[in-house]
Amino acid sequence: MSTLKAPQSTEKTPRTRGVSAMHFKSATTGVATKNMRNELNRLVNTVSDPETRKAFDTEMQSFFYLFTRYLAEKAQSKELDWDRIKSPAADQIVPYDNLPETSDPKVLNKLAVLKVNGGLGTSMGMTGAKSALEVKDDMTFLDLTVRQIEHLNTTHRVDVPLILMTSFNTHEDTLRIIKKYANQQLRITTFNQSRYPRIDKETLLPLPHSATDDKSKWYPPGHGDLYNALMHSGVLNQLLAEGKEYLFVSNSDNLGAVVDQRILQHMVDTNAEFIMEVTDKTKADVKGGTIIDYEGTVQLLEIAQVPSEHTEEFKSVRKFKIFNTNNLWINLKALKRIMENEGMELEIIVNPKVTEDGHAVIQLETAAGAAIRHFKNARGINVPRSRFLPVKSCSDLLLIKSDIYSLEHGQLVLNQNRMFSTTPVIKLGDHFKKIAQFQKRFKKIPKIIELDHLTVTGDVYFGRNVTLRGTVIVVANEGQRIDIPDGCVLENRLLSGNLTMTEL
User: Of 281, 392, 434, 443, which is the active-site residue?
Assistant: First the structure.
């Protein structure tokens, strides 16, 4: 394995550190670097097939570079200077309403759509690829995406391909699922993102001892790995060879992330190399990454990068009014230029985890949106909330499955009979956390077209044809069960453990 040197510090000794402390840090960093390099060499040598070893070596070199950057930044105590962080300037965020009304459909021939498809949905109790979850009218996330792009291709007689970035957790599952789309009017390409070794928190050594070690000893390093993986897989060059110039990237579980021709046209007209869709922050989005102006450059700021004493300020709407939806538009020629010339250094997010056997590990991850600072003429576009409809929990799933939305060509459309453009707030308790429990507890999804707020906690079951209106709170106390009967209408009601109803 070719040796990579740790990045050299160009900064002077920080004010807060004595010189001896810095020397100690440098010495320990040097030892950790050397030990990690030796272990990675050993890992590479566990692969016997030359082709597989070469690909694995490339992957381990990328990981090693990330690891040395992490050590160097840790030694320098490198943090953002909070006082230099400003809200983005007016020209750095474009309101959606300012975009061109008309667009040339031919531009779609230069577009490819990429879905980040590496998630397992473990938080919802799933074991396979999250994108295989049925979310609406017996259709999965992937079904809806395929339907949308197929409609786009047939309506405008264009060729927009679908690219799926999988992880080692979802790759086999995804390949099996996409076989059913063989006769659809679109091309699907899949590629695998990197697989990095988890790092022992104490020893700073890789957890796996062999390239074939169990899945639990490895991790996919976040969607920021997109750029490396596109390059190494050959997919970037393949897209450019096909005449594709623009890539629309989004998470596979964001049902609002559909191709928007106005955004694409704006990108073409303004020569913007990178566009991040942002939307107005609500109380539900306080942890979402945001765009900042840092010394005149547009950057992404994630909550993991924020010093603890500034966390509340980060969450407030006063300074940071918008957040990143992770819907990204990327100029592919610009991406190739950056990858081949200066490379894509993204801010490192340290993700501490504990393995099932109680081992403390760290995962070094990156976020795709952080690439914004590497591109010329990059900006945010403040889009309507309807372009951000992620399904992260069963509460989100209830909203999507309900009569609040209908489907048109795979796209969610808000029911016209709803009086408000905002959607209801839904909070389901721990009994509804896993998908199997959720399905068991609703005989049928309630009608919620006139609902404002729903909170359900405890052991609660819903019958068929239940209607919920206004504010409804259902609380089953410990050891009690509430069954809401078929055909029941609850309007502005608090239903508590002893089945007494209180009007709100």
Answer: 392
